[in-house]
Design a protein that fits this description.
The complex is a heterotrimer. Chain A contains three helices and seven strands; from the N terminus they run H-E-E-H-E-E-E-E-H-E. Chain A is an alpha/beta fold. In chain A, the strands form two sheets. A five-stranded mixed β-sheet of chain A has the order 1-2-5-4-3, covered by helices on one side. A two-stranded parallel sheet of chain A has the order 6-7. In chain A, a hairpin with an 8-residue loop joins strand 3 and strand 4. The termini of chain A are far apart. Chain B contains six helices and six strands; from the N terminus they run ββαβαβαβαβαα. In chain B, helix 1 packs antiparallel against helix 5. The longest helix of chain B is centred in the last third of the chain and has 16 residues. In chain B, 40% of the residues are buried. Chain C folds into two domains: 55 residues, no CATH class; 343 residues, Cytochrome-c3 Hydrogenase, chain B (Orthogonal Bundle). Helices cover 48% and strands 10% of the residues of chain C. Chain C has a three-stranded antiparallel β-sheet. A three-stranded antiparallel β-sheet of chain C has the order 4-5-6. In chain C, helix 4 runs antiparallel to helix 5 and helix 6 packs antiparallel against helix 7. Classes of the chains: A alpha/beta, B alpha/beta, C mainly alpha. The interface between A and C is large, with 34 and 41 residues.
Chain lengths: 168, 186, 411
């Protein structure tokens, strides 16, 4: 089964989306590109339909919070893979925390539905076009986004565990 | 002609002290009722996570909780005696657990199996209830992560001791009512 | 929903039979609530039913959300192994090994062949244990409790082997970053050989009880089907995807830990229905037994750990006698081992599919971001589509055949 090499993948991506790819690298053998958030849906559709690349499987969507990157604090990371060519790709986007919006890819991949809800639940990233963007893992009434770096891990209202005894 | 009766290795529960006679046996009601209750505790398995799998192993044939009277696992709260909370209880599940506890009929007992149910366990986070005794009264705590089936059986045996020696009037005493009101249960 | 008939409008009674063949029906809502004996886990399904037929289903999960990813940002690398235990707790060793391999990929260390083969044996035993639970539970949901009682007896044998290797039965925390904590001793080999000798006969009995059983087949065939295209679109991996006809297995596509040395087939189904999922798991248990045989027969000699003093605890005799080992021990236990900066994604074939670990490290003692790609969370979204149009009993059996483990669903 002939696969495609990472270099071929990078070349083909550059030829199609050259100006929207901000950075390219290959940590630990996986091609990682950083793109403009506006290009994500078009890129995933093109990756799915291109008959050489055939990236027809969305492996994962997750978020991350980098408070030091001004105007790019929240990051959405997509992992896609091509089972026929046996190659994986990581796409990273950075969106500002003041306007955390990015297009939803549920129209293309049904598996993105809950993955985007989880990312919204943890980081507060709004996926425009999502059919039901509500909290999925935390309680509905929660009013903050717990995975952001400024919030603590523990529940501050618990009475039995004194922070000073636990070295916090 | 005498026949050899093979010595059985099945142990039965000892009868309580009382006055025996020809065809009758007199003892106090709470001893007999305590004995009956203790040896026929029907569990309601409220198994959420890993401790639930160890609980399933306890009900299996290797460790066999059924020998202690817990033969019939009741999934309906109305028909269960003891609530076995095994696994982490998240804050989202708290109201559900309380609802199940309220639906149980008196007398009811609660065993909290595992570190997560007893005190939150290794999950000292914003989303995990730090012990089910925040919302329901608990009788026996079984520590472990997960506890071995022998530990779970030990917890059930301790509960049997509690049940056997409980007074019949306990559920009507003001102390018990105060305990329930402290949890917000009428 | 039908229009109200004139008779119903007149009498203001829904469901009033007009006598001319017009029958008004209403949909009922059935709460397959979080605590339900048949859901084998804590998640909620609110089914909209037309009599016995399922029209739609609304799911709620998060009832056991324990915030693993947030905890992982505070714990040193080797303490996260205990968290990974509790993801898919029916097969914890696979999660442990997957995490160790992710960190080893990040720090760039190569594990000796012997340790890799030992890891393979442990992972395949865990896979057998996971599939045994799932298949026994499919039987229970159709009413066949015998299989459950027998198979759980054999899971105890697997637990005994794990207990001898690492001390724990269920949440095993097996292995270290850099290998395994101790070598397999004679007792482990004895138990493994006894298991491999006795288990196939009992498992064959279970197979003969269920696989060609008319009642079981009628209950499970054509229930909860999903086509290969829809399964791929929903992100299915693992036995559920293989039952739909796609032969994707992470052990073959991206081999890790010497899986390329072993000769095994990937069982694949046809329709993606419950019977196919059951049969795929049955076949995978036979394949796992084959792999364990091959690993035991060809076990290479050598060390069982790599030379990573920053992560691998030194043996206790050295710690008490040797200054350098004492310092390494202190540093490791206090979590002061630094890793290189970078991001890595590593996937292993868990009991339910591709279990992925996305790790971003900023050079500190704890990960900057750790995300678990949990297969149960991703394929459980397809459940409403799979049960639409089927009956309630089929919905229950489909749910248990998917093998949704609550710990992996919510993390």
């Amino acid at each position: 089964m002939a696969g495609i090499t990472n270099e071929f993948l990078i070349e083909r991506l550059q030829s199609q989306f050259g100006d929207q790819i901000l950075a390219t690298e290959m940590p630990y053998g996986m091609v990682t590109i950083v793109i403009q958030p506006s290009a994500i849906l078009d890129m995933l559709i093109w990756l799915n339909t291109d008959n050489l690349l055939k990236f027809k499987f969305l492996t994962d969507i997750c978020g991350a919070h980098y408070p030091d990157l001004i105007d790019g604090e929240l990051s959405v990371i997509y992992h896609v893979q091509s089972m026929e060519n046996n190659v994986r790709l990581r796409i990273k986007t950075f969106i500002p925390i003041t306007k955390p919006e990015i297009a939803s890819v549920t129209s293309l991949y049904s598996s993105a539905n809950w993955m985007e809800r989880e990312t919204y639940d943890f980081y507060g990233i709004i996926f425009t076009g999502h059919p039901n963007l509500t909290r999925i893992l935390n309680v509905e009434e929660m009013d903050y986004f717990p995975m952001r770096k400024e919030y603590p891990l523990e529940d501050g209202t618990r009475r039995d565990k004194e922070d000073e005894y636990f070295g916090r | 002609m005498t026949t050899d009766i093979k010595k059985s290795n099945v142990t039965l529960v000892d009868a309580p002290d009382g006055f025996k006679g020809e065809g009758f046996f007199a003892t106090s009601a709470n001893k007999v009722i305590g004995l009956a209750r203790a040896n026929s505790l029907w569990p309601l398995p409220f198994a959420t996570s890993c401790c639930g799998i160890e609980f399933m192993a306890t009900m299996g044939s290797n460790y066999d909780l059924a020998r202690f009277g817990s033969e019939r696992m009741s999934f309906s709260p109305r028909q269960a005696d003891m609530l076995l909370v095994a696994g982490t209880i998240a804050k989202k599940l708290g109201p559900v657990l309380k609802q199940v506890y309220l639906q149980m009929a008196e007398p009811r007992w609660v065993i909290s199996i595992g570190a997560c149910a007893s005190s939150g366990g290794i999950f000292d986070t914003y989303s995990v209830l730090q012990g089910i005794d925040r919302i329901i009264p608990v009788d026996v705590y079984v520590p472990g992560c997960p506890p071995r089936p022998e530990q779970i059986i030990d917890g059930v045996m301790k509960l049997q001791e509690l049940v056997k020696n409980e007074s019949l009037r306990r559920r009507n005493t003001p102390e018990y009512q105060a305990l329930l009101t402290s949890y917000g249960i009428q | 929903m039908n229009e109200l008939t004139s008779k119903e409008k007149e009498t203001n009674q829904p469901g009033f039979h007009t006598g001319d063949g017009d029958f008004h029906t209403e949909y009922t809502t059935l709460n397959l609530g979080p605590t339900h004996p048949a859901t084998h886990g804590i998640f909620q399904n609110i089914l909209t039913m037309d009599g016995e037929i399922v029209i739609d289903s609304e799911q709620t999960c998060g009832y056991i959300h324990r915030a693993f990813e947030k905890i992982a940002e505070r714990r040193p690398y080797y303490q996260i192994t205990t968290l990974t235990d509790r993801l898919n707790y029916c097969s914890s060793p696979i999660n442990n090994m997957g995490w160790h391999m992710t960190v080893e990929k990040l720090i760039g260390v190569e594990i000796p062949k012997r340790a890799q083969y030992m890891r393979v044996i442990i992972m395949e035993l865990a896979r057998i244990s996971d599939h045994l639970v799932c298949n026994a539970v499919i039987g229970v949901d159709t009413g066949a409790l015998t299989g459950f009682t027998y198979l759980f007896q054999w899971r105890e044998k697997i637990y005994e082997i794990f207990e001898h290797i690492c001390g724990a039965r269920l949440t095993t925390n097996i292995g270290r970053i850099g290998g395994l904590e101790r070598d397999f001793d004679d007792e482990v080999y004895k138990k493994l050989k006894a298991f491999l000798a006795d288990f196939p006969k009992a498992f064959d009995e279970f197979g003969r009880l269920m696989e060609r059983n008319r009642i079981f087949f009628d209950r499970t065939a054509k229930t909860g089907p999903i086509t290969a295209e829809r399964a791929l679109n929903y992100g299915f991996t693992g036995p559920n995807l293989r039952a739909a006809g796609v032969d994707y297995d992470v052990r073959v596509a991206n081999p890790y830990s010497s899986y390329e040395d072993f000769d095994f087939t990937i069982p694949v189904g046809v329709d993606g229905d419950t019977y196919d999922r059951f049969m795929v798991r049955q076949a995978e248990i036979w394949e796992s037994l084959k792999i364990i045989h091959q690993a035991l027969d060809n076990m290479p000699s050598g060390k069982y750990f790599a030379d990573v003093p920053e992560f691998y605890l030194p043996p206790k005799q050295d710690v008490y006698n040797n200054m350098e080992a004492l310092i390494w021990h202190f540093k490791i236990v206090m979590g002061e081992s630094d890793v290189p900066k970078g991001e890595v994604y590593h996937a292993v074939e868990g009991g339910n599919g591709e279990l992925g670990f996305y790790l971003v490290s900023d050079g500190g003692r704890a990960p900057y971001r750790l995300h678990f790609r949990r297969p149960c969370f991703i394929f459980y979204q397809a459940y409403p589509e799979m049960i639409r149009g089927g009956m309630l009993s089929d919905a229950i059996v489909t749910l248990s055949s998917l093998n949704v483990i609550a710990g992996e669903l919510d993390a």
